[in-house]
Amino acid sequence: MARSSVRCRCGSRKKAHRCCAPIHAGRPAPSPEALMRSRYAAYALGLVDHIIATTDPSGPQWEADTDAWAERIRSFSTATRFVGLSIDASPVPQDGVGYVTFTASLQQHGEDASFTERSRFTAHPARGWRYHSGERLPIPADSRLSPPGAP
């Protein structure tokens, strides 16, 4: 299959080369939602460096020991089946801060590991948006995605 025909893993239904691939290659994300989608796709694809590079160093998720952090991300990505992503809310950012509420449908070891989160993103001059932190929320009943082939 030609690379240009591959759908993006973020669930946008766009071709990867017109969606998250340029952000994975280093282009700044134009919005918090675009960064959120690129990070979901990066986890699904095992692009550990993208996750670390797009995390705000002032946020609680940042880890100084990037080697150990990278290994934890790699292990999570390998042990997880990324079923789908649903964007529940993505209001216009204000004063360099943006929020995205999303539901990530995941499976780990055959069990549902889905979650909903309201993520905070911060704008950084010359580097674009960065993930700062997130708050877990109850999963909306209509947001959970079914695995492909499920009834």
Look up the CATH topology.
Nuclear Transport Factor 2, Chain: A
Low-pLDDT parts are 146-151
Task: Using the alpha-carbon principal axes, give the shape.
Answer: globular
Give the H and E element order: HHHHEEEEE
Report helical residue fraction: 25-40%
CATH architecture: Roll
Number of domains: 1
- The strand count comes to 5
Q: How many strands, what sense, and barrel or not for the largest sheet?
A: 5 strands, antiparallel
Strand content: 25-35%
Q: What oligomeric state is this?
A: single chain
Gap between N and C termini: 28 Å
Q: Tell me the name of the CATH class.
A: Alpha Beta
Average pLDDT confidence is 90
The SS-based structural class is alpha+beta
Defining traits:
single chain, 151 residues, alpha+beta, Nuclear Transport Factor 2, Chain: A
Summarize the structure.
With 151 residues, the chain is α+β, with helices and mostly antiparallel strands. The protein has four helices and five strands.
Strand and helix layout:
Blueprint: H1 21-24, H2 32-45, H3 48-53, H4 66-79, E1 80-89, E2 97-108, E3 111-112, E4 115-124, E5 128-137
Antiparallel strand pairs: 1-2, 2-3, 2-4, 4-5
